[in-house]
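If your schedule permits, I should be very grateful for your opinion on a structural question. I would ask you to consider whether the tokens describe a fold that such a sequence might reasonably adopt. Thank you for your consideration; the sequence and its tokens are set out here.
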Amino acid sequence: MASASKRVATKDLGSTVAEQSVAFEQNTFIRSLESLIVEESSDEEGRPPALWEVGWHKMWMMTGFILGAILFVLGYHFFCTFVNGTVVGRSSVHFSNHSITISQSAINYVVTQAAYIVRSLLMASIICSYEQRIWHEVRMRAYSIDTISMAFGMIHSPIAVFNRDILGRLTIPFLITLITWLLPLSSIFAPGCLSVQNVVQNNINDVPVPSLDWGQDLGLFFTVQPQGQGGQNDLTIGTWNGISDRLLRTVYTVAFGGEIKTWSSPCGSNCSYALPLEGVSSKCWTENVARPAILQHHTYLGRTNVIDQRVNPSTTFEAWFSSSPDSPEMKYTTCHFFEGVYMLNVSYQLNFPSVNVMSFTARRLFNYNPNSLNSTKIKSLNQNDWKSVNQATLLSTIDYVLSGSLNTFSESESQTLGNAKRDSKSSETHDTMIAQTALLDSDVDFANGLEQLLQNITISLISWNTESKVVPVTIESVAPTYSYTSWRLILPFTIAVSAAIACAAIGMRALLSNGVPSEISFRQIVATTRNSSIDKVAIGACLGGRLLPSGFRRTRIKYGAMREPGSGRRHAGFGLVREVEPLDPIKHYW
């Protein structure tokens, strides 16, 4: 009985404690709620209104980004100027006694990234200007919620251009957006200002080149009949024994080919040099002489008259007589020979040689042999005379190749054909190869042709490469070199910076008109859409997205001033057109 009473008392005590706990929690919640209401009420009562403040940081952002872009463009220009003209892979920066070579990949990276940095700075300024302008537009006019949504995202999405209000009414924001779309082109075109071109560089070095020394070797152009046992010493006491095969082949090659026999480049595929060369030159002239009555076995070419007492020899050439059978005259060509000086301008382009020649005559050439060259005793000559003997050998070689005879005769008696009379005459050459050269061509002056032939043979002897001479050589090397075209950098960036400055001017004017700095951000949208009317319109659209009620999307709203029901306070934000008033910068808004 006692235990039962004890259990009942314990149960009643537990119930009482539970009830008191619940009551305490309820009282605490009610007091907290009342406190919150009081705090909210006091906040609303004592909270200051929204401030009108231009916010110079936005203005500094618009101008600062542009100034930064201009500085980068100047740095871009100075960098390209520094690199301009340097060989790819050899651009270097010098620090006191050290130098750092800038690789091609590093230069490409710098010019590309610098262009993108300039674009990014200008984009930041233009976007800041766009934000000020778009908030100015929604203050001045009413637009549908759909149009404002597209306008806020238009700078990042080209789809907005398909909205009629944006094209027709938001013209300036659309133009600013168009600039942001086209601005990246500047970062595409600008890196093209620095290109790589193959540039010919000339370096002058002293290089041994093939030359010709007439007095280097006594047996260079002719063969010697030795006397004695045939040793080397016997050659110096032998006699002149004819033309060397090598010289004969060279004369044949030049005479029949009509061109100089060239030699391999001593200085690479692209080079040039000037080479002074001693040689044999000639002066030839042609005279008209009376035609003999009978031309049979007449000497055609190559009669060499060697005058005694070491006087100047001259070679007499009898050229082809007139092609007219009844011509009373024939041409008679005489040449005098000289020790001359040739100035050769030799150049190679891709290993193809070209030789330009200027010749200057010196003293007349004479033969050291009083009778004939074949009886010249080699032992009677010292080394200073070897040059003259070799030059005389060259003249004898030309005579040997081109000399011969010409026979003319009548094929038949004169014939009388009606009232006309015809004499048949013909001619033929013997022991000469002159017909295989260009000397008898109708467009070649015979005297000038002989001079040119001797000149070409003399220069062709360099191809033997028996002697070298060190001369200054201009060596051309094609090197990939950076080429800076300044207008390709200045033009696109000038257009881009000018467009950014124009946008900044529009943004600053809008900023001053708005009275506060604006931005397209979630916090500003939340702060400016506190409106019971919009809350009612937005019923059923709380999930957002594209599947919004058409009535909500077409609702026209405007940013301005509204009066709050009950309190009478002015509130700034988006509202329906019928309840929005223009903002007044001298009034307070909550």
